[in-house]
Amino acid sequence: xxxxxxxxxxxxxxxxxxxxxxxxxxxxxxxxxxxxxxxxxxxxxxxxxxxxxxxxxxxxxxxxxxxxxxxxxxxxxxxxxxxxxxxxxxxxxxxxxxxxxxxxxxxxxxxxxxxxxxxxxxxxxxxxxxxxxxxxxxxxxxxxxxxxxxxxxxxxxxxxxxxxxxxxxxxxxxxxxxxxxxxxxxxxxxxxxxxxxxxxxxxxxxxxxxxxxxxxxxxxxxxxxxxxxxxxxxxxxxxxxxxxxxxxxxxxxxxxxxxxxxxxxxxxxxxxxxxxxxxxxxxxxxxxxxxxxxxxxxxxxxxxxxxxx
Length: 309
Ligand code: NAP
Prior knowledge:
By secondary structure, this protein is of the alpha/beta class. Among the domains are: 11-22 and 168-279, Rossmann fold; 46-130, Rossmann fold (3-Layer(aba) Sandwich). The protein has eleven helices and eleven strands. A hairpin with a 5-residue loop joins strand 9 (248-249) and strand 10 (255-256). Helix 2 packs parallel to helix 11 (278-298) and helix 7 packs across helix 11 (278-298). The chain starts with 10 loop residues before the first helix and ends in an 11-residue tail after the last helix. The structure holds NADP nicotinamide-adenine-dinucleotide phosphate.
């Protein structure tokens, strides 16, 4: 059980509360404006950052994500190169392409859109991407770096969450943070990044018994489980900061997160909406990692050579 207290707010104050909605679109916009300036500085030195995007099969959601990422690249001046393969492509074709992209001068980031068809081993694909160009932050080197706090490319979604918290000047030091979801791409790196910022972190997953006994103690609750309505008001401490990473498409077609937004916003101090919260930040941090990679190259930094495989 986490150490901590429940709310210090009186019931009268709590009754009148509605959370401040953290606008991920606006925060993304200001980060993208800064990135545009950094791209302009690179262009002045004769370098345009480039992102290679590999997509396999016809997954409609993947097609939308890839289109959004490429459009976002264009907005800030990053070149993007799309490599599309049919669903029955041989893994060797993609591995060979990655090997070529690893040494291509105008490519600073390589992204393989997930999910991949079943003939692919995702760990093998991720290991093949040079750690120097791993702008998704999934390479073992970058993942391992999170443990000791010197990752070059933090995974984009947790990185985006950290940026949202920073933007709202929400302190992390000494806070009780509960992360619901323990995936390699969101929950685990999220927990490590928050621990690095001196929060007291608890991580929950599908086998956690009595989830509410943990979430109720969170000063900051980050939810990334992929379960609509998992978090309801009685599971949230009054005044908590609630970050909803989940993206779920309901049978009605509506897009929702993992949190009962209307209920929880009356109890929280800050909350992210879905859509328009963490989602736009994920794409923006991919751009940030790509620009950072080009800057590293422009400055002659290649400290990860030993980590590429
Ligand atoms: P994932 O790989 O399916 O992992 C889900 C995690 O949630 C697992 O650790 C699972 O536990 C845990 N979980 C599932 N049901 C739970 C429950 N009832 N109680 C507590 N924990 C539960 O998913 P993911 O890739 O991390 O993504 C999570 C959600 O975030 C999805 O909705 C996804 O679409 C969304 N997402 C959004 C963005 C964005 O940009 N906003 C980016 C990435 C993902 P076990 O480990 O025990 O199975």
